[in-house]
Design a protein that fits this description.
- By secondary structure, the protein is an alpha/beta fold.
- It folds into 2 domains: 11-138 and 294-320, no CATH class; 149-290, 3-Layer(aba) Sandwich (Rossmann fold).
- The chain has 12 helices and 11 strands.
- The strands form 4 sheets. It has a 5-stranded parallel β-sheet. A two-stranded antiparallel ribbon has the order 1-2.
- The longest helix is centred in the last third of the chain and has 18 residues, at 295-312.
- 33% of the residues are buried.
């Protein structure tokens, strides 16, 4: 069987769409916003509201620091263009005098005020980190897998940069294990036995088990791994994004491993011997993924997150009363 070769988002199309958006008159966006907000009742309102409140946990009014808040009219690209365009896509719809606070990149430390961010810690009081769908061209990559779980090789696979201590330790522990095809791809001056070449998503889909290991924040491969017919294995996630990793349940959506990966061999053996259990988890993973595969609904949720943000920071109401 051949795999369907649609394993990466088209970056050229992504940037082209965003350039065209910048040419659209603001009046059209403002009219479109009202239309989109009025479609809420055509969806499951309780579900939509629950996701908005998950991303923006605050329900009481808050203030934005003057020295950190940026007005939409002064929002400019300063590197990290994928992040810039992902937020700009939604800012187009709101008044150019509204202000936002945000942070791009993999940094996950919390600020003393609400700010938009790609990822946040799952544990503790994380309410000031407002999750937004940022860098989606890299992270929100769902795939179509034509191989069933039982047709795949009975091994676990992982490729990636292993700069963090926990990743480096994992690679050195399992790079030569007979049940694994694991290796690091980070360039270095001194070759190491655990250095292995790039492996495409299509090639990784030939394995029953895909390791999803957090780096600076979430595991980049988690979204496509959970949309595949392979079984996702990982330690309990410590960070979350728009994908709501904090709602994932061990044994339901993925196979949980110990933080030191000492039970990896045991878990591989178990699910090789119990494919029906693996397939049940894979089906639940697909169900979780499916909720992010409705572009119009995703658009509405993103707009409602910003609307709530502007309301709680006192900007939406002030504008409405002008």
């Amino acid at each position: 069987m051949t795999l369907i070769q649609r394993h990466k988002n088209n970056k050229v199309a992504f940037y082209s769409r965003n350039i065209l958006r910048s040419l659209t008159p603001k009046l059209i966006y403002h009219r479109r916003l009202q239309y989109l907000l009025n479609t809420l009742d055509s969806y499951d309102r309780q579900y939509i509201v629950s996701r908005v409140n998950y991303y923006l946990k605050h329900n009481d009014a808050f203030s934005l620091p003057d020295d950190k808040a940026v007005s939409i009219k002064r929002y400019r690209k300063k590197g990290q263009s994928a992040y810039y365009y992902d937020l700009k896509e939604y800012l187009h719809y709101f008044d150019r005098h509204f202000k936002v606070t945000y942070r791009f990149g993999d940094d996950t430390h919390l600020e003393p005020y609400p700010f938009l961010v790609k990822a946040r810690p799952i544990a503790g009081d994380n309410a000031n980190a407002v999750l937004f769908k940022l860098n989606k061209v890299r992270h929100f990559n769902f795939i179509e897998d034509s191989l069933s779980f039982r047709e795949k090789t009975d091994k676990a696979v992982w490729r990636g940069a292993a700069y963090q201590p926990h990743r480096a330790s994992f690679v050195r522990q399992y790079y030569n294990h007979p049940l694994c095809d694991i290796g690091q791809t980070n360039p270095g001056d001194t070759p190491q036995p655990w250095d292995k070449g790039f492996m495409s998503i299509a090639e990784q889909l030939g394995y029953k088990f895909i390791l999803c290991i957090e780096g600076n924040d979430v595991a980049t491969n988690l979204k496509w791994a959970m949309s595949s017919n392979s079984l996702c294995m990982m330690p309990k996630p410590k960070y979350e994004t728009w994908f709501m990793e904090g709602t994932l349940k061990a044994g339901v959506h993925y196979v949980e491993l110990k933080d030191d990966f000492s039970d990896l061999e045991e878990k591989i053996h178990y699910y090789n011997q119990h494919p029906e259990a693996a397939e049940a988890i894979i089906a639940n993973a697909h169900e979780h993924v499916h909720q992010f595969c409705h572009p119009r609904q995703e658009k509405l949720i993103g707009l409602l997150v910003l609307k709530k943000y502007f309301e709680l920071s006192g900007q939406w109401q002030r504008e409405a009363n002008k």
